[in-house]
Design brief:
Radius of gyration of chain A: 27 Å
Order of helices and strands of chain A: HH
Number of domains of chain B: 1
Strand content of chain B: under 5%
Number of helices of chain A: 2
Number of strands of chain B: 0
Helix content of chain B: over 70%
Distance between the termini of chain B: 50 Å
Shape of chain A: rod-shaped
Largest sheet of chain B: none
Structural class of chain A: mainly alpha
Order of helices and strands of chain B: HHHHHHHHH
Structural class of chain B: mainly alpha
Oligomer: heterodimer
Distance between the termini of chain A: 85 Å
């Protein structure tokens, strides 16, 4: 079987390859999105925790004064 | 009915985060290896179909995706029920992390089925029982996602989602038996029946390997989603603050 025969899929190239292409794109997107999502969550929580710390610090300072 | 204390201990969010972190690489490697093997077998060893020619090779993604669309739904409904009854947070987490993956598998089953239907049946779509019930499954997933997104309180969101998921389980046997109960263009079961599978062994092997591969994909993906989401849900606990301090430093960014 030659490469062009293989890619032709007996005349069904469009149907076979778009099936595999769409499957790849959808599954890859679902797979990759939580990786970025987790990084964003960590970044946001980091900022949030720092704000909370600062607020607590301010409160402690004002109570002392 | 009460669950033994050990179940609650091992299903604690912190334990889930640690354990899943160890499991993800194994599942991911298993997925990658079975995927390569399954695709190689499916394209280069599996023979040409005497009726459908090469077009039948769509089966190696279509059928596992369709199986997974139902399997993930059952996982979602069962974990939703477990979360509802025993108030296990990680069960709620698994239910909501499963929904987008299940929706993806359902979408893939519908699209690849459509692309297989066109050359074989002469149409991309027909409103018969199998295709319609699978489309309803997609709407159930999307409804679950939308419902949970619309409720702010995570406990109430989990509860409402679980009830929707449990009610929707009625659709699963309808999908499976639709090809027997109603007349349809869709072919009947060739593998999942109480009889010898009526399929060539060299077509059956890649089909089953791809099914295992998609299961491992789901395992990897659902744990990765759960691990991200749990940080958000448990943000007030000390262990999350420690992880954010450690991993946040590795990520760099604003000081």
């Amino acid at each position: 079987m030659s490469a062009s025969e293989f890619f032709d899929m007996g005349g069904y190239a469009f149907f076979v390859w778009s099936s595999y292409g769409i499957t790849t794109v959808v599954l890859a997107w679902v797979f990759i999105s939580p990786i970025f999502n987790k990084k964003n969550i960590i970044k946001e929580l980091r900022i949030k925790y720092r704000q909370q710390e600062r607020q607590q610090q301010d409160r402690a300072d004002s109570e002392q004064a | 009915m009460k669950l033994p204390a050990i179940v609650h201990k091992y299903s604690s969010p912190k334990n889930f985060y640690t354990m899943s972190g160890k499991m993800v690489p194994w599942f991911a490697w298993g997925f990658g290896l079975t995927l390569v093997f399954g695709l190689y077998y499916g394209f280069f060893i599996a023979p040409t179909d005497y009726q459908q020619g090469e077009s039948y090779r769509i089966m190696f993604v279509h059928v596992p995706a369709a199986w997974m669309s139902m399997f993930v739904y059952m996982v979602m409904a069962v974990s939703g029920a477990v979360g509802l009854i025993w108030r296990i947070k990680t069960a709620d987490l698994m239910a909501s992390a499963s929904a987008p993956i299940g929706a993806a598998f359902t979408l893939i089953a519908l699209i690849t089925g459509s692309l297989w239907g066109k050359p074989m049946w002469g149409t991309y779509w027909v409103w018969d029982a199998r295709l319609t019930s699978e489309l309803i499954l997609l709407f159930l997933y999307l409804g679950f996602i939308a419902l949970q997104a619309s409720i702010e309180d995570p406990r109430n969101a989990a509860r409402a989602g679980a009830i929707l998921a449990i009610v929707g389980v009625v659709n699963i046997p309808i999908i499976h038996y639709s090809v027997e109960w109603w007349s349809t263009l869709h072919q009947g079961a060739t593998v999942t029946k109480f009889d010898k599978p009526s399929i060539h062994i060299d077509m059956l092997i890649p089909l089953l390997v791809m099914a295992v591969s998609f299961k491992l994909y789901y395992a990897t993906s659902v744990l990765m989603r759960g691990r991200a989401e749990i940080l958000l849900r448990e943000q007030n606990s000390r262990w999350v603050k420690e992880i954010v301090a450690n991993e946040g430093a590795a990520l760099g960014g604003a000081k």
